[in-house]
Amino acid sequence: MIRSLRGRLFISLTTVVLLTGLIGGVFAHRWAFDEAIETQDSVLIQIAGLVQNGGFAGTQDLHGVDEDSEVWLMELGKAPQGTSEERLLWRLQDGMRDATRKGKPVRVVLRTRSDGSRFAVAQSAGVRDEIAGDMAFRTVLPILALIPCLMLVIAFVIARSLRPMVRLADELDARRADDMTALPLRDLPSELNPFVSSINGLLQRMHETMEQQRRFIADAAHELRTPLTALSLQAENLDQVELPPAASERLAVLRQGIRRSKHLLEQLLALARHDAAPSDCAQSEIVELDRAARRIIANLLGEAINRGVDLGFERVESIPVRGEPVMLAAMIRNLIDNALRFTPEGGKIDVAIYQDGATGVLRIDDTGPGVSSEEIGRIFEPFFRGQRPEGDGAGLGLSIVKRIVDRLGGSIEAVNITETGRTGLRVVVRLPAAAT
Ligand SMILES: Nc1ncnc2c1ncn2[C@@H]1O[C@H](COP(=O)(O)OP(=O)(O)OP(=O)(O)O)[C@@H](O)[C@H]1O
Ligand SMILES: [Mg+2]
Fold it and tell me: pTM (2 decimals)?
């Protein structure tokens, strides 16, 4: 069973063409052959008529168009005489007969003149069949030549007719996973319309479901913010109170827990927000990538110094990219935050921003432990924190970054630095540079 529609159409149409060609060819051959034999018969009859009316006399050969196709005039006399074949011929009745001449089959026309003498006009049966066969073949030849041409035309028409389907599949393949916009109905054959409408209906329903989920997460995070802020205020108030050492210790743990929860909520809200932003809105403004990075690094410099980490630029070029400033800032902040969190004291974080052809590149190298090869494929998954979760991590930073990069039409990859004598993670973001 052939699964491909193209293959099935081609094979069935080709079979029809071949069968039609074969049957037509056999009949055409048969008819042309019979017709050629009849024509040759009537030529023999005409020659016999001429001889009877005295047009030819004596035993002579009439040369045909080609040397084999000659016609013989055989005088048989008024009574059986000559060779046995001639005597045998004499005994046959007037008309068209099959006989032999010099042992070879011939077609003859027998006639009796008014004076009683008889003659035969004969032609070799083999030659006649050969001529007829030749003519019949020439009749069938155009049909035979037409079959491969028809097969080519069929293949071309099928490929052309299925092109909209192939285009549709390519378009679906090239889509981003979160792109739920309807497929265009124009330029499609009407037969595909119900199919495309169903896909569009499904996309619409998926979009609504995703939107509901996103709204739920955003609402839940938002609702949790107020009680959490109240809690953290209360914890701060407790700070003013003189507490026994055991209680202050527990209070510190409590405050740490509240901070983590706040961070998780902020990250959840950011994820929901960047999910919601329509893609064309992300393309609206031109932002200098280097300037955004400078601002964030300036903000995080204090923390880096506290941790004893050397945070700085290795290379900066002015790169304009299309995007929303908040999005780009969230992307850079999350990446540098990771590098800071995982780089031990005395370590180094190098940020490079440069243009590579039509893309702007943001590269962040740290001297942390890097990510094990089993985990590196999963770090962009939401809530993935690996084997050694540190600090207040929610496991959402890189998923937020990934969504932003996707939305901006860029790409991101994380690789372990494998230079001798050092470890670390290198994260490279590539964004299409905006034309200035
Ligand atoms: N620079 C890095 N060096 C080593 N491991 C890293 C680095 N960046 C990310 N990872 C690993 O990838 C995981 C996922 O990172 P991600 O930023 O998504 O979450 P997080 O930093 O743990 O939490 P959040 O960013 O939400 O506060 C981290 O928990 C860590 O295991
Ligand atoms: Mg992070």
Answer: 0.65
Range of the domain at 267: 194-276
Give the three-state DSSP class for 110.
Answer: strand
Is the CB of 366 inside a 6 Å radius of any atom of ligand 1?
yes
- Ligand 1 pocket member 414 (CB < 6 A): no
pLDDT in tens, 36-46: 999 999 999 99
Instruction: Count the domains in the chain.
Output: 3
Same domain, 392 and 252: no
Given CA atoms 167, 168, 170, 174 in this order, what sign does their dihedral have? positive
Asked, for residue 45, whether it belongs to a domain, the answer is yes
346-357 pLDDT, tens digit each: 999 999 999 999
Q: Which ligand is nearest to the CA of 389?
A: 1
In testing the pocket of ligand 1, which one of 379, 381, 425, 428 has its CB within 8 Å of the most ligand atoms?
379
> Is 336 a pocket residue for ligand 1 (Cβ < 6 Å)?
no
Give the residue-averaged pLDDT of 310-314.
96
Same domain? For 216 and 99 the reply is no
Lookup: tokens for 171? 């378009």
Q: What does the alpha-carbon distance between residue 100 and residue 85 come to, in Å, rounded to a whole number?
A: 7
> Closest residue (by CA) to atom 4 of ligand 1?
370
